[in-house]
Amino acid sequence: MINNFVDGLMNYQFLQNALITSLLVGFVSGILGAFIILRGMSLMGDAISHSVLPGVAVSYMFGLNYVFGASFFGILTAILIGYITEKSTLKNDTVIGIVFSSFFALGIILISFAESATNLYHILFGNVLAVRDSDIVLTAIVTVISLIFILIFFKELKLTSFDPVMAKAAGLPVKFFHYALMFLLTLVAVVSLQTVGTILVISMLVTPAATAYLLTDNLKIMIVLSALIGMLSSIIGLFFSYSYNLASGATIVLTAAVFFLLAFLFAPKKGLIVRNRLSRN
Amino acid sequence: MKDAMIQINNLNVYYSNKIALQDVNISIPSGKITGIIGPNGAGKSTLMKSMLGLIDYQGTVSFGRNKLEQVQKDIAYVEQRQDLDLTFPINVFDTVLLGTYPKLGLVKRPGKKEKQLAKEALETVDMQEYSDHQISELSGGQLQRVFIARAIAQQPEWFFLDEPFVGIDVVSEEVIIDVLKKLRDQGKSMVIVHHDLSKVTKYFDHLVMLNEEVIADGPVDQVFTKQYLGNIYGTGFVEALTGGVISD
Protein backbone atom coordinates (compact mmCIF):
# COMPACT_ATOMS: atom_id res chain seq x y z
CA MET A 1 0.00 0.00 0.00
CA ILE A 2 2.82 2.35 0.88
CA ASN A 3 4.57 1.22 -2.30
CA ASN A 4 1.45 2.06 -4.20
CA PHE A 5 1.47 5.58 -2.69
CA VAL A 6 5.17 6.06 -3.48
CA ASP A 7 4.62 4.79 -7.04
CA GLY A 8 1.76 7.23 -7.38
CA LEU A 9 3.98 10.05 -6.18
CA MET A 10 6.64 9.16 -8.77
CA ASN A 11 4.23 8.88 -11.64
CA TYR A 12 1.37 11.29 -11.14
CA GLN A 13 1.82 14.99 -11.10
CA PHE A 14 -1.58 15.49 -9.42
CA LEU A 15 -0.38 13.51 -6.44
CA GLN A 16 2.87 15.44 -6.28
CA ASN A 17 0.90 18.67 -6.36
CA ALA A 18 -1.37 17.38 -3.64
CA LEU A 19 1.56 16.46 -1.44
CA ILE A 20 3.34 19.79 -1.84
CA THR A 21 0.18 21.79 -1.17
CA SER A 22 -0.83 19.83 1.88
CA LEU A 23 2.69 20.04 3.29
CA LEU A 24 2.65 23.81 2.83
CA VAL A 25 -0.79 24.11 4.39
CA GLY A 26 0.27 21.88 7.29
CA PHE A 27 3.32 24.06 7.84
CA VAL A 28 1.70 27.48 7.60
CA SER A 29 -1.38 26.63 9.62
CA GLY A 30 0.93 25.07 12.20
CA ILE A 31 3.00 28.21 12.75
CA LEU A 32 0.04 30.59 12.70
CA GLY A 33 -2.08 28.24 14.76
CA ALA A 34 0.36 28.46 17.66
CA PHE A 35 -0.47 32.15 18.06
CA ILE A 36 -4.16 31.59 17.40
CA ILE A 37 -4.57 29.17 20.30
CA LEU A 38 -2.37 31.16 22.70
CA ARG A 39 -4.42 34.29 22.04
CA GLY A 40 -7.65 32.41 22.65
CA MET A 41 -8.74 33.10 19.08
CA SER A 42 -9.67 29.58 18.00
CA LEU A 43 -13.30 30.48 17.60
CA MET A 44 -12.33 33.56 15.62
CA GLY A 45 -10.28 31.34 13.32
CA ASP A 46 -13.27 29.11 12.80
CA ALA A 47 -15.43 32.12 12.03
CA ILE A 48 -13.05 33.53 9.45
CA SER A 49 -12.50 30.23 7.71
CA HIS A 50 -16.26 29.79 7.28
CA SER A 51 -16.86 33.39 6.32
CA VAL A 52 -14.63 33.30 3.26
CA LEU A 53 -17.31 31.26 1.48
CA PRO A 54 -19.32 34.18 0.04
CA GLY A 55 -16.02 35.68 -1.11
CA VAL A 56 -15.22 32.54 -3.06
CA ALA A 57 -18.65 32.64 -4.68
CA VAL A 58 -18.43 36.30 -5.62
CA SER A 59 -14.96 35.77 -7.08
CA TYR A 60 -16.25 33.00 -9.33
CA MET A 61 -19.13 35.19 -10.47
CA PHE A 62 -16.78 37.93 -11.56
CA GLY A 63 -14.09 35.61 -12.86
CA LEU A 64 -11.53 36.81 -10.31
CA ASN A 65 -9.03 34.68 -8.47
CA TYR A 66 -10.87 33.53 -5.37
CA VAL A 67 -8.16 34.98 -3.12
CA PHE A 68 -9.48 38.49 -3.55
CA GLY A 69 -13.09 37.85 -2.69
CA ALA A 70 -12.21 35.49 0.13
CA SER A 71 -9.69 37.87 1.72
CA PHE A 72 -12.21 40.66 1.55
CA PHE A 73 -14.87 38.67 3.38
CA GLY A 74 -12.37 37.25 5.87
CA ILE A 75 -11.22 40.68 6.93
CA LEU A 76 -14.77 42.02 6.88
CA THR A 77 -15.71 39.27 9.31
CA ALA A 78 -12.87 40.13 11.69
CA ILE A 79 -13.77 43.82 11.63
CA LEU A 80 -17.49 43.22 11.98
CA ILE A 81 -17.02 40.88 14.95
CA GLY A 82 -14.74 43.43 16.61
CA TYR A 83 -17.18 46.26 15.92
CA ILE A 84 -20.34 44.53 17.17
CA THR A 85 -18.57 43.25 20.29
CA GLU A 86 -17.37 46.77 21.07
CA LYS A 87 -20.69 48.48 20.39
CA SER A 88 -22.96 46.01 22.20
CA THR A 89 -22.86 44.35 25.58
CA LEU A 90 -22.92 40.90 23.98
CA LYS A 91 -20.11 38.48 24.65
CA ASN A 92 -17.55 37.90 21.95
CA ASP A 93 -18.45 34.24 21.30
CA THR A 94 -22.10 35.14 20.75
CA VAL A 95 -21.16 37.77 18.19
CA ILE A 96 -18.82 35.32 16.45
CA GLY A 97 -21.63 32.77 16.24
CA ILE A 98 -24.00 35.27 14.67
CA VAL A 99 -21.59 36.78 12.16
CA PHE A 100 -19.95 33.66 10.81
CA SER A 101 -23.12 31.61 10.42
CA SER A 102 -24.72 34.50 8.54
CA PHE A 103 -21.78 34.82 6.16
CA PHE A 104 -21.65 31.06 5.72
CA ALA A 105 -25.36 30.96 4.86
CA LEU A 106 -24.89 33.82 2.42
CA GLY A 107 -22.02 31.89 0.88
CA ILE A 108 -24.11 28.78 0.37
CA ILE A 109 -26.78 30.76 -1.48
CA LEU A 110 -24.25 32.64 -3.60
CA ILE A 111 -22.40 29.44 -4.49
CA SER A 112 -25.59 27.87 -5.79
CA PHE A 113 -25.95 30.85 -8.16
CA ALA A 114 -22.31 30.75 -9.16
CA GLU A 115 -22.00 27.02 -9.59
CA SER A 116 -19.82 26.42 -12.58
CA ALA A 117 -16.16 25.56 -12.32
CA THR A 118 -16.33 24.25 -8.82
CA ASN A 119 -18.87 22.63 -6.61
CA LEU A 120 -19.92 23.27 -3.08
CA TYR A 121 -18.89 19.85 -1.83
CA HIS A 122 -15.27 20.43 -2.79
CA ILE A 123 -15.16 23.88 -1.23
CA LEU A 124 -16.61 22.56 2.01
CA PHE A 125 -14.53 19.40 2.29
CA GLY A 126 -11.50 19.96 0.10
CA ASN A 127 -10.30 18.20 -3.02
CA VAL A 128 -6.56 18.14 -2.73
CA LEU A 129 -6.13 15.74 -5.64
CA ALA A 130 -7.39 18.44 -8.01
CA VAL A 131 -4.82 21.08 -7.06
CA ARG A 132 -3.54 23.14 -9.98
CA ASP A 133 -0.07 24.62 -10.35
CA SER A 134 -1.46 28.09 -9.73
CA ASP A 135 -2.85 26.87 -6.39
CA ILE A 136 0.58 25.64 -5.36
CA VAL A 137 2.14 28.98 -6.20
CA LEU A 138 -0.53 30.78 -4.20
CA THR A 139 -0.10 28.48 -1.21
CA ALA A 140 3.66 28.95 -1.35
CA ILE A 141 3.31 32.74 -1.44
CA VAL A 142 0.98 32.75 1.58
CA THR A 143 3.35 30.43 3.43
CA VAL A 144 6.35 32.65 2.76
CA ILE A 145 4.48 35.83 3.76
CA SER A 146 3.30 34.25 7.02
CA LEU A 147 6.74 32.87 7.82
CA ILE A 148 8.45 36.21 7.21
CA PHE A 149 5.85 38.06 9.27
CA ILE A 150 6.33 35.71 12.22
CA LEU A 151 10.12 35.82 11.97
CA ILE A 152 10.22 39.61 11.83
CA PHE A 153 7.63 40.28 14.52
CA PHE A 154 8.21 37.26 16.74
CA LYS A 155 9.05 39.47 19.71
CA GLU A 156 5.94 41.63 19.32
CA LEU A 157 3.69 38.63 18.72
CA LYS A 158 5.00 36.99 21.85
CA LEU A 159 4.40 40.06 24.01
CA THR A 160 0.99 40.96 22.59
CA SER A 161 -0.14 37.33 22.90
CA PHE A 162 0.99 36.95 26.48
CA ASP A 163 0.16 40.34 27.94
CA PRO A 164 -1.73 42.60 25.50
CA VAL A 165 -2.64 45.06 28.26
CA MET A 166 0.94 45.71 29.33
CA ALA A 167 1.90 45.92 25.65
CA LYS A 168 -0.81 48.51 25.03
CA ALA A 169 0.17 50.53 28.10
CA ALA A 170 3.76 50.60 26.84
CA GLY A 171 2.59 51.93 23.48
CA LEU A 172 2.86 48.87 21.23
CA PRO A 173 0.41 48.76 18.30
CA VAL A 174 -1.58 45.86 19.73
CA LYS A 175 -4.49 46.34 17.32
CA PHE A 176 -2.19 46.23 14.31
CA PHE A 177 -0.88 42.82 15.31
CA HIS A 178 -4.39 41.59 15.96
CA TYR A 179 -5.59 42.54 12.50
CA ALA A 180 -2.38 41.43 10.82
CA LEU A 181 -2.88 37.97 12.30
CA MET A 182 -6.53 38.03 11.22
CA PHE A 183 -5.40 38.88 7.70
CA LEU A 184 -2.89 36.02 7.60
CA LEU A 185 -5.52 33.73 9.06
CA THR A 186 -7.80 34.68 6.19
CA LEU A 187 -5.11 33.97 3.62
CA VAL A 188 -4.42 30.58 5.19
CA ALA A 189 -8.14 29.80 5.25
CA VAL A 190 -8.28 30.60 1.55
CA VAL A 191 -5.36 28.43 0.49
CA SER A 192 -6.56 25.61 2.73
CA LEU A 193 -9.84 25.38 0.82
CA GLN A 194 -8.30 22.94 -1.65
CA THR A 195 -6.64 20.73 0.93
CA VAL A 196 -9.08 20.40 3.79
CA GLY A 197 -12.06 22.53 2.81
CA THR A 198 -13.71 25.43 4.59
CA ILE A 199 -15.33 23.43 7.33
CA LEU A 200 -12.16 21.68 8.47
CA VAL A 201 -9.62 24.52 8.15
CA ILE A 202 -10.04 25.26 11.82
CA SER A 203 -8.71 21.82 12.65
CA MET A 204 -5.42 22.48 10.85
CA LEU A 205 -5.07 25.79 12.68
CA VAL A 206 -5.87 24.51 16.13
CA THR A 207 -5.16 20.79 16.48
CA PRO A 208 -1.41 20.62 15.65
CA ALA A 209 -0.80 23.78 17.70
CA ALA A 210 -2.68 22.36 20.67
CA THR A 211 -0.75 19.11 20.37
CA ALA A 212 2.54 21.03 20.33
CA TYR A 213 1.40 23.10 23.32
CA LEU A 214 0.96 19.92 25.35
CA LEU A 215 4.45 18.74 24.44
CA THR A 216 6.57 21.76 25.36
CA ASP A 217 6.92 24.80 27.61
CA ASN A 218 8.80 26.89 25.10
CA LEU A 219 7.08 29.09 22.53
CA LYS A 220 9.70 28.67 19.80
CA ILE A 221 9.75 24.89 20.16
CA MET A 222 5.97 24.91 20.22
CA ILE A 223 5.83 26.70 16.87
CA VAL A 224 8.35 24.31 15.26
CA LEU A 225 6.56 21.24 16.64
CA SER A 226 3.22 22.60 15.54
CA ALA A 227 4.49 23.01 11.98
CA LEU A 228 6.02 19.51 12.00
CA ILE A 229 2.86 17.90 13.33
CA GLY A 230 0.82 19.80 10.76
CA MET A 231 3.03 18.54 7.92
CA LEU A 232 3.11 14.99 9.25
CA SER A 233 -0.69 14.95 9.53
CA SER A 234 -0.87 16.17 5.94
CA ILE A 235 1.37 13.40 4.55
CA ILE A 236 -0.28 10.60 6.51
CA GLY A 237 -3.76 11.95 5.80
CA LEU A 238 -3.00 12.24 2.11
CA PHE A 239 -1.74 8.66 2.10
CA PHE A 240 -5.02 7.35 3.51
CA SER A 241 -7.03 9.58 1.23
CA TYR A 242 -5.24 8.26 -1.86
CA SER A 243 -5.13 4.63 -0.77
CA TYR A 244 -8.77 4.29 0.29
CA ASN A 245 -10.28 6.95 -1.93
CA LEU A 246 -11.50 9.05 1.02
CA ALA A 247 -11.98 12.83 1.27
CA SER A 248 -8.51 14.28 1.91
CA GLY A 249 -9.78 16.89 4.37
CA ALA A 250 -11.30 14.26 6.60
CA THR A 251 -8.26 11.96 6.62
CA ILE A 252 -5.82 14.80 7.32
CA VAL A 253 -7.96 16.18 10.14
CA LEU A 254 -8.42 12.75 11.72
CA THR A 255 -4.68 12.13 11.59
CA ALA A 256 -4.08 15.42 13.39
CA ALA A 257 -6.72 14.42 15.94
CA VAL A 258 -4.94 11.12 16.60
CA PHE A 259 -1.69 13.00 17.29
CA PHE A 260 -3.57 15.27 19.65
CA LEU A 261 -5.10 12.33 21.49
CA LEU A 262 -1.67 10.74 21.94
CA ALA A 263 -0.26 13.99 23.34
CA PHE A 264 -3.29 14.50 25.56
CA LEU A 265 -2.72 11.09 27.11
CA PHE A 266 1.06 10.67 27.05
CA ALA A 267 2.66 14.13 26.97
CA PRO A 268 5.62 14.15 29.38
CA LYS A 269 4.50 17.04 31.60
CA LYS A 270 1.00 18.03 30.59
CA GLY A 271 -0.39 14.61 29.59
CA LEU A 272 -3.38 13.10 31.37
CA ILE A 273 -1.45 10.09 32.70
CA VAL A 274 1.38 12.08 34.24
CA ARG A 275 -1.01 14.63 35.68
CA ASN A 276 -3.15 11.93 37.24
CA ARG A 277 -0.12 10.30 38.78
CA LEU A 278 1.06 13.66 40.15
CA SER A 279 -2.28 14.59 41.65
CA ARG A 280 -2.57 11.20 43.31
CA ASN A 281 0.73 11.66 45.14
CA MET B 1 10.64 67.76 38.80
CA LYS B 2 7.33 69.51 39.27
CA ASP B 3 6.68 69.75 35.55
CA ALA B 4 6.86 65.95 35.25
CA MET B 5 3.81 65.30 37.40
CA ILE B 6 0.61 63.78 36.11
CA GLN B 7 -2.22 66.26 35.77
CA ILE B 8 -5.78 64.95 35.53
CA ASN B 9 -8.57 67.37 34.69
CA ASN B 10 -12.35 66.91 34.56
CA LEU B 11 -12.04 63.16 34.18
CA ASN B 12 -15.28 61.19 33.86
CA VAL B 13 -15.65 57.51 33.09
CA TYR B 14 -18.87 55.73 32.23
CA TYR B 15 -19.45 51.98 32.05
CA SER B 16 -22.50 51.34 29.86
CA ASN B 17 -24.22 54.56 30.98
CA LYS B 18 -23.43 54.06 34.66
CA ILE B 19 -20.92 56.51 36.04
CA ALA B 20 -17.75 54.92 37.40
CA LEU B 21 -15.65 58.01 38.05
CA GLN B 22 -16.93 61.52 38.41
CA ASP B 23 -15.17 64.80 37.87
CA VAL B 24 -11.66 63.81 38.92
CA ASN B 25 -9.27 66.76 39.18
CA ILE B 26 -5.96 65.79 40.73
CA SER B 27 -2.26 65.88 40.19
CA ILE B 28 0.09 63.04 41.01
CA PRO B 29 3.64 64.04 41.93
CA SER B 30 6.69 62.50 40.30
CA GLY B 31 9.44 60.97 42.43
CA LYS B 32 6.92 59.76 44.99
CA ILE B 33 4.98 56.61 45.80
CA THR B 34 1.33 57.46 45.35
CA GLY B 35 -1.41 55.18 46.58
CA ILE B 36 -4.90 55.11 45.13
CA ILE B 37 -7.14 53.81 47.90
CA GLY B 38 -10.83 53.31 48.43
CA PRO B 39 -13.40 50.55 48.89
CA ASN B 40 -14.33 47.91 46.30
CA GLY B 41 -16.00 49.44 43.28
CA ALA B 42 -14.63 52.90 44.09
CA GLY B 43 -13.04 53.12 40.64
CA LYS B 44 -9.39 52.69 41.66
CA SER B 45 -8.39 50.42 38.77
CA THR B 46 -10.61 52.45 36.48
CA LEU B 47 -8.69 55.61 37.35
CA MET B 48 -5.39 53.85 36.67
CA LYS B 49 -6.59 52.40 33.38
CA SER B 50 -7.84 55.75 32.17
CA MET B 51 -4.52 57.39 33.00
CA LEU B 52 -2.87 54.72 30.86
CA GLY B 53 -5.31 55.14 27.98
CA LEU B 54 -6.57 51.57 28.36
CA ILE B 55 -10.23 52.60 28.59
CA ASP B 56 -12.31 55.44 27.15
CA TYR B 57 -12.80 58.53 29.27
CA GLN B 58 -13.80 62.15 29.07
CA GLY B 59 -11.37 64.80 30.27
CA THR B 60 -7.63 65.23 29.99
CA VAL B 61 -4.61 63.42 31.37
CA SER B 62 -1.15 64.86 30.80
CA PHE B 63 2.30 63.76 31.87
CA GLY B 64 4.16 66.98 32.52
CA ARG B 65 4.01 68.84 29.23
CA ASN B 66 3.47 65.62 27.32
CA LYS B 67 0.54 63.59 26.20
CA LEU B 68 0.42 59.92 27.14
CA GLU B 69 1.54 58.79 23.66
CA GLN B 70 4.87 60.58 24.05
CA VAL B 71 5.80 58.91 27.33
CA GLN B 72 4.28 55.44 26.95
CA LYS B 73 7.61 53.63 26.65
CA ASP B 74 8.52 55.08 30.03
CA ILE B 75 5.45 53.58 31.65
CA ALA B 76 5.57 50.09 33.11
CA TYR B 77 2.19 48.66 33.99
CA VAL B 78 1.63 45.57 36.11
CA GLU B 79 -2.01 44.60 35.95
CA GLN B 80 -3.84 42.47 38.50
CA ARG B 81 -2.36 38.99 38.52
CA GLN B 82 -5.67 37.27 37.92
CA ASP B 83 -5.92 38.99 34.51
CA LEU B 84 -2.81 37.23 33.19
CA ASP B 85 -2.64 33.96 31.29
CA LEU B 86 -0.39 31.84 33.48
CA THR B 87 -0.68 28.82 31.17
CA PHE B 88 1.31 30.64 28.48
CA PRO B 89 4.46 28.70 27.54
CA ILE B 90 7.05 31.09 28.94
CA ASN B 91 9.66 30.89 31.68
CA VAL B 92 10.60 33.43 34.32
CA PHE B 93 13.61 34.87 32.50
CA ASP B 94 11.75 35.38 29.22
CA THR B 95 8.88 37.00 31.11
CA VAL B 96 11.26 39.57 32.58
CA LEU B 97 12.92 40.01 29.19
CA LEU B 98 9.52 41.09 27.78
CA GLY B 99 9.99 44.26 29.82
CA THR B 100 12.84 45.34 27.55
CA TYR B 101 10.72 45.09 24.39
CA PRO B 102 8.98 48.48 24.42
CA LYS B 103 12.24 50.47 24.38
CA LEU B 104 13.87 48.09 21.93
CA GLY B 105 11.57 49.25 19.15
CA LEU B 106 9.88 47.14 16.49
CA VAL B 107 11.68 44.24 14.79
CA LYS B 108 14.92 44.47 16.83
CA ARG B 109 15.76 41.39 18.88
CA PRO B 110 16.79 41.49 22.53
CA GLY B 111 20.58 41.18 22.69
CA LYS B 112 23.26 41.03 25.36
CA LYS B 113 22.31 44.36 26.89
CA GLU B 114 18.64 43.42 27.27
CA LYS B 115 19.47 40.02 28.71
CA GLN B 116 21.76 41.68 31.23
CA LEU B 117 18.95 44.08 32.21
CA ALA B 118 16.58 41.16 32.71
CA LYS B 119 19.13 39.27 34.77
CA GLU B 120 19.81 42.26 37.02
CA ALA B 121 16.09 42.94 37.43
CA LEU B 122 15.54 39.33 38.53
CA GLU B 123 18.34 39.71 41.07
CA THR B 124 16.77 42.90 42.38
CA VAL B 125 13.67 40.98 43.45
CA ASP B 126 15.74 37.96 44.51
CA MET B 127 14.23 35.56 41.99
CA GLN B 128 17.33 34.65 39.97
CA GLU B 129 17.22 30.98 41.03
CA TYR B 130 13.84 30.65 39.35
CA SER B 131 15.10 31.89 35.99
CA ASP B 132 14.29 28.64 34.15
CA HIS B 133 11.01 27.90 35.88
CA GLN B 134 7.72 28.17 34.05
CA ILE B 135 5.58 31.00 35.39
CA SER B 136 2.82 28.47 36.07
CA GLU B 137 5.06 26.88 38.74
CA LEU B 138 5.36 30.01 40.90
CA SER B 139 3.43 31.07 43.98
CA GLY B 140 1.48 34.32 43.95
CA GLY B 141 4.23 36.25 45.69
CA GLN B 142 7.00 34.90 43.47
CA LEU B 143 4.95 35.71 40.41
CA GLN B 144 4.40 39.26 41.59
CA ARG B 145 8.14 39.68 42.11
CA VAL B 146 8.73 38.46 38.56
CA PHE B 147 6.30 41.02 37.17
CA ILE B 148 7.92 43.77 39.24
CA ALA B 149 11.23 42.61 37.72
CA ARG B 150 9.70 42.86 34.26
CA ALA B 151 8.66 46.42 35.03
CA ILE B 152 12.17 47.24 36.26
CA ALA B 153 13.73 45.73 33.12
CA GLN B 154 11.72 48.21 31.10
CA GLN B 155 13.69 51.03 32.78
CA PRO B 156 10.64 53.27 33.00
CA GLU B 157 10.13 56.59 34.74
CA TRP B 158 6.67 55.60 35.95
CA PHE B 159 5.50 52.37 37.56
CA PHE B 160 1.78 51.65 37.60
CA LEU B 161 0.88 48.71 39.81
CA ASP B 162 -2.67 47.46 40.25
CA GLU B 163 -3.15 45.72 43.62
CA PRO B 164 0.40 44.30 43.73
CA PHE B 165 0.13 43.12 47.34
CA VAL B 166 -3.06 41.09 47.08
CA GLY B 167 -2.68 37.39 47.80
CA ILE B 168 1.07 37.35 48.27
CA ASP B 169 3.32 36.17 51.12
CA VAL B 170 4.88 38.51 53.68
CA VAL B 171 8.43 38.05 52.37
CA SER B 172 7.47 38.94 48.82
CA GLU B 173 5.57 41.98 50.05
CA GLU B 174 8.63 43.18 51.95
CA VAL B 175 10.95 42.55 49.01
CA ILE B 176 8.66 44.45 46.67
CA ILE B 177 8.06 47.49 48.87
CA ASP B 178 11.79 47.64 49.57
CA VAL B 179 12.61 47.63 45.87
CA LEU B 180 9.96 50.23 45.13
CA LYS B 181 11.29 52.56 47.81
CA LYS B 182 14.81 52.24 46.44
CA LEU B 183 13.57 53.07 42.97
CA ARG B 184 11.68 56.03 44.39
CA ASP B 185 14.89 57.25 46.01
CA GLN B 186 16.51 57.08 42.56
CA GLY B 187 13.83 59.46 41.31
CA LYS B 188 11.34 57.01 39.81
CA SER B 189 7.61 57.54 40.32
CA MET B 190 5.02 54.98 41.37
CA VAL B 191 1.27 54.84 41.32
CA ILE B 192 -0.21 51.92 43.22
CA VAL B 193 -3.80 50.79 43.54
CA HIS B 194 -4.22 49.44 47.04
CA HIS B 195 -7.05 48.56 49.38
CA ASP B 196 -5.46 47.38 52.63
CA LEU B 197 -5.53 50.45 54.87
CA SER B 198 -3.27 49.08 57.61
CA LYS B 199 -0.01 49.80 55.76
CA VAL B 200 -0.90 53.02 54.01
CA THR B 201 1.30 55.24 56.16
CA LYS B 202 4.26 52.88 55.77
CA TYR B 203 4.04 52.46 52.03
CA PHE B 204 2.89 55.72 50.51
CA ASP B 205 4.10 59.31 50.29
CA HIS B 206 1.03 60.63 48.59
CA LEU B 207 -2.57 59.50 48.49
CA VAL B 208 -5.61 59.68 46.28
CA MET B 209 -8.69 58.63 48.23
CA LEU B 210 -11.43 57.57 45.95
CA ASN B 211 -15.07 56.62 46.04
CA GLU B 212 -16.41 57.22 42.54
CA GLU B 213 -15.12 60.74 43.07
CA VAL B 214 -12.04 62.08 44.79
CA ILE B 215 -12.64 62.33 48.54
CA ALA B 216 -9.19 63.73 49.26
CA ASP B 217 -5.74 63.86 47.73
CA GLY B 218 -2.40 65.06 48.98
CA PRO B 219 0.54 64.00 51.17
CA VAL B 220 -0.31 60.99 53.34
CA ASP B 221 0.05 62.80 56.67
CA GLN B 222 -2.43 65.45 55.58
CA VAL B 223 -5.19 63.32 54.05
CA PHE B 224 -5.05 59.95 55.80
CA THR B 225 -7.28 61.16 58.60
CA LYS B 226 -10.31 59.91 60.47
CA GLN B 227 -12.45 62.50 58.86
CA TYR B 228 -11.71 61.57 55.24
CA LEU B 229 -11.63 57.86 55.96
CA GLY B 230 -14.96 58.21 57.69
CA ASN B 231 -16.31 59.89 54.57
CA ILE B 232 -15.44 56.80 52.56
CA TYR B 233 -15.89 53.86 54.86
CA GLY B 234 -18.21 55.17 57.58
CA THR B 235 -16.73 56.42 60.87
CA GLY B 236 -17.41 53.21 62.78
CA PHE B 237 -15.09 51.12 60.63
CA VAL B 238 -12.04 53.34 60.49
CA GLU B 239 -10.41 52.00 63.63
CA ALA B 240 -10.87 48.37 62.58
CA LEU B 241 -9.63 48.91 59.03
CA THR B 242 -6.51 50.83 59.88
CA GLY B 243 -5.47 48.88 62.96
CA GLY B 244 -5.33 52.11 64.91
CA VAL B 245 -2.38 53.70 63.08
CA ILE B 246 -3.93 56.96 62.19
CA SER B 247 -3.84 60.66 62.85
CA ASP B 248 -6.92 62.68 63.75
UniProtKB/TrEMBL annotation, chain A:
InterPro entries: ABC_BtuC-like, ABC_TroCD
Gene3D superfamilies for the chain: ABC transporter involved in vitamin B12 uptake, BtuC
UniProt protein name: Manganese import system permease protein ScaB
Record has Transport as a keyword: yes
A GO biological-process term: response to zinc ion
PANTHER family: ABC-TRANSPORTER METAL-BINDING PROTEIN, IRON TRANSPORT SYSTEM MEMBRANE PROTEIN HI_0360-RELATED
Coiled coil: none
Keyword tags: Membrane, Transmembrane, Transmembrane helix, Transport
UniProtKB/TrEMBL annotation, chain B:
Keyword hit for Ribosomal protein: no
Family membership noted in the UniProt record: Belongs to the ABC transporter superfamily.
Keyword hit for Nucleotide-binding: yes
Source species taxonomy: Bacteria, Bacillati, Bacillota, Bacilli, Lactobacillales
PROSITE patterns per UniProt: ABC_TRANSPORTER_1, ABC_TRANSPORTER_2
GO MF, one annotated term: ATP binding
Protein name: Manganese transport system ATP-binding protein MntB
PANTHER family membership: IRON TRANSPORT SYSTEM ATP-BINDING PROTEIN HI_0361-RELATED, METAL TRANSPORT SYSTEM ATP-BINDING PROTEIN TM_0124-RELATED
